[in-house]
Amino acid sequence: MNIFGIDHLELFVGDAQQAAYYFGAAFGLEVGGRGGPETGLFGQRSLLMEHGEVQLVLTSGLYADHSACHYVQQHGDGVAVVAMRVDDVADCFAELVSRGAEPMSPPRSFTDGTSTVSFADVGGFGDVVHRLVQREGPSFLPGPIEMIEREPIEHAMFERIDHLAICVPAGKLQATADFYQEVYGFAQIFTEYIDVAGQGMNSVVVQSPSGGVTFTLIEPDTARRPGQIDDFLQWHAGAGVQHIALITDDIVSTVDRLSGRGVRFLTTPDAYYRSLEARVGPVDAPVADLARHGILVDRDHWGQLLQIFTESTHVRRTLFVEVIERRGARTFGSGNIKALYEAKEREMVHAPTPMAADPDPEPMEVER
What we know:
2,3-Dihydroxybiphenyl 1,2-Dioxygenase, domain 1, single chain, 8-stranded mixed beta sheet, 9-stranded mixed beta sheet, 368 residues, alpha+beta, 17 strands, 25% helix
């Protein structure tokens, strides 16, 4: 069983076209395909959004009993499917089920003469499903998703999905980490306890043998005062993806471009930057540029990590995005957790209005 990496994420959303407009306008993702009842996706509308190797499928249910509608009612818009690229769907599905994964849907294939895609679904964490995907050819999902001809994105801001941060209820962290090790063959590569301003959380990072799939698992310490992890679990109504980390090769340029698109980021006090180089050593970027944007810097044994987090635009203040640049670093910025916590606390207190939509936007061509 070989798991190579994250193939795509599927988000269940209340309005796929509205979500597509946001991801397009804010993050530069482009519509690469569409599907619905007329293509074989019964009871739903789905839009494929692409940028670099990042692929998001935005799905809305058309009927109240559709699984996407149930998900949105329970959790709000969020990641419902984490799809992983594998070498053999049938063998992988059989092995995972034999190890204890819940079978959700058996292996099946779609083809259009130029591409064949096989996939199957198995249980993951909370209400999130894992889709096993095996591809031959350029189409995303031949038939059910009709591809749209478009020019490749020049100067892509993001390369791929670096990792997912996942919140789980208190007492479920180690069981979840064990599940991914025993069933999916992941390795536990990092663990720590974070204590910030009277709040506490435990974190475990698990990763596939290929290194292509990484989950940062987080649980709150209920012996400490409630904090943002508790808020997420309450507002999301259970375990779920808290943020999607997108990797870039030039974080300053990328944050410049995103800011110009209206993306809002968590702020960092000036005091953080006055001691930055004393803490992490020389940084290969002007500290003034990092401070202007609020970009955080951490160091591990292998190098430096630059990262920044967007404000959540979700009505429940749950799902958000991390932009990350790795300069050799292999860890996840634990030295910045205190700054992140403080920034999230300020966001929760002030609760700024999400990015305003253009009052007279150019329509995205997502449906005909």
